[in-house]
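Retro notes, item 3 of 5
We never archived the inputs for the magnesium ion complex last cycle. Fixing that now. Sequence and ligand:
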Amino acid sequence: MADDFILQVRGLSKRFGGNLAVAGVDLDVRRGETLAIIGPNGAGKTTFYNLLSGRMLPTQGQILFNGKDIAGLPPHVISRLGVSRSFQINNIFTEMSVRENVEVAVTARRGEGRRWANRAGANPPVRQEAAQLLEQLSLSHLAEQRAGTISYGDKRLVEIAVVLATQPQLVLLDEPTAGMTPDETGRVVELVQGLMRTGRYTFLITEHDMRVVFDLASRILVLHHGASLILDAPAVVRADPRVREAYLGHADAELGA
Ligand SMILES: Nc1ncnc2c1ncn2[C@@H]1O[C@H](COP(=O)(O)OP(=O)(O)O)[C@@H](O)[C@H]1O
Ligand SMILES: [Mg+2]
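Structure as it came back at the time:
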């Protein structure tokens, strides 16, 4: 299908008192694409994710996911429909092993929470699925480590494994490489590229590291004061004088990668 849009956002707004944090955003996301959302601090990126994932109620507008308006639905319903979000902050159980973290997420998706609670370990299909995810993210060697003891970069990868355990169609990554070493950043980029090649996922990525954005995104949406400034191919966005202006002179440094 030429116009197979997984996500269609229409006139989406979020007001906090007198502050329009998201100001009438329209966005069509094609199934399977990786779209980056960038913009200066306070531009509305996180609020936009909060609206898509159901953590905040929109003031106005529509969020069509596979053609169905999900605006205002609770987060767990949106997650079950296939929208999953990683957080800027680690969101894993530090006392559990890496394997258990992923098994809990798989179990939750399969709706086997009660059985999980009653058993010493996860059932074989859950174990198998979790093992596959760990393999996919090159985390198998850390499976039995306590999640609190592994490196920051590895924790963020576990978090991505937990997101994928929900079997999402649309994955919202919030600054997936924030705070990472260059090596760890390279791993995340390769990993997301690998996931992109499976064709199973559509990614939205907010990210400050422009090298990551240019390595991954087929299109970039620039938010400025909550509104869409430009939505286009990376090379076009990089060359746009309005984008440089929005970054208040930091554009050369930030967009020059
Ligand atoms: N829970 C909130 N209550 C009030 N204002 C908020 C809240 N969350 C965000 N904002 C405001 O909305 C604007 C956009 O913030 P945010 O979405 O966090 O931007 P970004 O993620 O692009 O840095 C900012 O002016 C911020 O202060
Ligand atoms: Mg933010």
